[in-house]
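To close the section, here is one more complete example, presented without commentary so you can practise reading it yourself. The ligand is zinc ion.
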Amino acid sequence: MLTAKFRCPECGGPLSERQDALVCWACGSSVPVREGIADFVRGRFDTILDVAAYDQEHGIDDKRPNRFYDQIRSQAGGRWPPSLGSVLEVGCGTGLFSRALLAGNEARDVILTDVSVGMLRECRHHLTRLGVLEGRDVAFATYSSNEACIRDAVFDTFIGTSVLHHILDVRSFLEDVYRGLKPGGRAFFIEPVRRYHQAMAQSLADIAVFLTAREGGKTEGFQPLLNWLAQQRQSLMHKDDQSFLERLEDKHQFVPEEFAALAGSIGFATAEAIPFGNDRTGVGTVQLLCAELGIAKPFRDVIVTMMPAVGNRFMKLLGPTDWAPSFLLWVTKGHGPSVHTFQTQPDRSPTRPVGPNMGGVAPHWQIRVVASSSAQGTVLAVDGWYISNVDVVGIRVTLDGTSQDAPLWLPRPDVQQALNQRGQYAAWNALCCGLAEQLAFGGVSSVDGEHGLQVDVVLAGGGVARLNGPDRIRLGETAMFSG
Ligand SMILES: C[S@@+](CC[C@H](N)C(=O)[O-])C[C@H]1O[C@@H](n2cnc3c(N)ncnc32)[C@H](O)[C@@H]1O
Ligand SMILES: [Zn+2]
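Output:
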């Protein structure tokens, strides 16, 4: 079946099946097949997720796949087709969706893909154990969205649950999906809702601040919570920066109107973001998050108990399109060239402030830059913090005209405690206001060891504000910026 659906990733030519490879008729290159898994990715990309621990960490047992499948089906309502036809699942993982898909009869044939051979083996192990592979037309292949290996118009349905947000270039992936779908076909994905998670993070930051004041932040489980807040902040601040997101496993969260606009520009006939999972207060989602973070019950109970009252401030700001932790993203490919309906909404994202003093209170900062030399040229170690009420992406250091950015995201509960006793800064900004980076300036070196130095704050809207301080630095010297 693979050769009917996939093509040569090198030249687009047709593939033929050999015992341990798929070989291209046109250019002769081959795709290895090991233990029944065609390996298009060949280790060029991978996941950091732990295959062996995945099911336990995500509460996946033998009952969950059917419940999950039924929930998607019921949320899709009238969009669900009489048959899913020929299916490709992306990022199948250990088979949360595919175990139920193959237990039922709604798919004619199925190709299960993932970036990771380990995940595919684990998925197949469960499918075999459950006896759902017998008599079915199923194939396994690695695919990461970076291989041009899917043939045109060969699938009726593309599916991905919790995988789109791992794919760096969502546009290019959706273009692949569009091309691979037959006219009249559909694709659906379950993915995190950005505004919901932002409201949840802001609520949890308030809770963390309250607990720092009460217990000094010494409780077990406090650090994993801070780390999650910091990561959440990091991916939000850098949401449009592909070179930054490349380093993260979880890369994106979704906004309905952005998704609809993207899908529309690719050519899909319809695009909808349907709220998936009912948790207006955020309590259930926080509970799941605590479990994923390994936060033990006593501390988890404290957080969960505080969530309704503290979180209400942020969760109530969400509109109906963002009332759930996840979206069921549903796109269809039209039968003809006409484009019909898009769920579009005015962009409700807050307008960006343009100056560092916006947001009421003045910012404070303490940033240290230490210069040294290495084989790669001059290296600046940059650390410290910047607390403000505006969203700061990072600190830009310019050395002899060459700029490098150090992201601002590390948890600094000490700064929060020292400077935000009265809560005049948003807890979310105050808690994750630290930075610590080594910036290598290859090719920047000077005869007398002295360099021109400039330090700026980079705001989320793209604005830049210069920090007063030394404008020269010598190797071995430390430059301090504070205000
Ligand atoms: C959060 S898990 C979801 C797994 C499964 N779909 C589920 O719902 O439990 C993300 C999956 O996507 C895979 N993945 C990560 N990056 C990927 C990429 N670029 N292309 C395809 N799969 C990817 C991971 O290996 C992992 O199996
Ligand atoms: Zn070829």
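Once you have examined the tokens, check your reading against these statements. Residues 346-357 have pLDDT under 50 and may be disordered. Residues 194-332 form one domain.
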